[in-house]
Amino acid sequence: MRVMIHNLKKGIGCGNKDTFDVPNVFMEPEHRYAVVEVFHNELYVAVKIISNENDLLICEYVDHYSEFDDEVMLKKFSVDWECIKYGFCKLILWAPEMAAEFGGSFDKTVKRFYFDWELYTTHYEEVHGSPCRKKNPDEL
Fold first, then answer.
1. Calpha distance 19→6 (Å, rounded)
2. Which end of the chain is less congested by CB atoms within 10 angstroms, N or C?
3. Are 94 and 76 in contact (CB under 8 A)?
4. Are 67 and 90 in contact (CB under 8 A)?
5. Mean pLDDT, rounded, for 100-127
6. Closest CA to 5 of 40, 46, 55, 65
């Protein structure tokens, strides 16, 4: 699939390109957000979807995660959209060879992508009864 990402931050491993042929797109069920696998098992970019027509997904950059590992091992990334009702999703790494590092589990959340910070903080305050002390990732 071809993906165009507007406002992509410089220096995240994409050179000067903003349009890519990507190996995988993890789309949120309502097609408002996606996590784009730009480089297989290396670079994931969270985006807000602007349009999806004519085999071109046009998006707005939100955040990214990169992992460059030369060690050969069995691993796979997936995206858990179950928390999107709270404004974020989780990038999950499945790597059975890292079970000891993951406390006996084969998988681990390696990144949260926040799409709606206000929704997240509102829900956090409802659940915990106190203000959210985390900093908005967009302001870091």
1. 9
2. C
3. yes
4. no
5. 92
6. 46
**Encoding tokens for residue 57?**
């997904």
In this structure, are residues 55 and 46 in contact, taking their beta carbons and an 8 Å threshold? no
Across the chain, what does the average pLDDT equal? 90
Whether pLDDT at 63 is above 90: yes
14-40: string of b/e by CB count within 10 Å (b at 16+)?
Answer: beeeeebebeebbbbeeeebbbbbbbe
Hunting for tokens 């071109």 — which residue is that? Answer: 56
Dig out the tokens for 116 from the structure: 């709606």
3-state secondary structure of 27: strand
Q: Looking at the chain, list the stretches that DSSP marks H as alpha helix, in order from N- to C-terminal side.
A: 117-128
Q: What is the number of alpha carbons within 13 Å of residue 52 lying toward its C-beta? A: 12
What would the two tokens of residue 12 be? 């995240």
Bridge partners, residue 25, by sequence:
36
pLDDT of 140 reads 60
User: Tokens standing for 132?
Assistant: 């959210």
pLDDT on residue 101: 84
| Residue matched to tokens 């915990």 | 128
